[in-house]
Amino acid sequence: MKGEILALVSALLWGIAPLFDKYVVSTGVSPYLANLIRVSGALMFLAIVTFVAKDYSYAKLTIKSITFLLIAGIIASGVAMIVYFQALKLSQASRIVPITSIYPLFTVIFSALLLGENVSPKVVIGAVLIVVGLSLICGE
Known about the structure:
By secondary structure, this protein is mostly helical. Helix content is 81%, strand content 0%. It contains 6 helices and no strands. The chain has helices at 2-26, 31-52, 63-90, 93-100, 103-115, 121-138. Helix 1 crosses helix 3 and helix 2 (31-52) crosses helix 3 (63-90). The longest helix has 28 residues, at 63-90.
């Protein structure tokens, strides 16, 4: 149950952050600069938290894991966030954020195809519901 509560807290925080993002890009700040500042804030926060928590698990990092994290950072925190900020600049946050929230659908597909993970019937039903939800949002 603790994991689910933390997931809800994450969802709440992710639901609030786009309001700040939308305000900034609506003032004319470029998506590149907005993302750079946003990532810098996250980097400062994480550096402090890692130091305070005395997290020494960095000893377990390998060149491969560092490379994968850098690639994931470029994809998610770099390219995707710039595209996201551009989308916010062009449309309403109340439409853009739900559309970007279909990423679990892509994770299910790529996990099955690239990682060979088994996809249960419940996950397939959930993916179908994601598509239905997206069609409701985009069908306005």
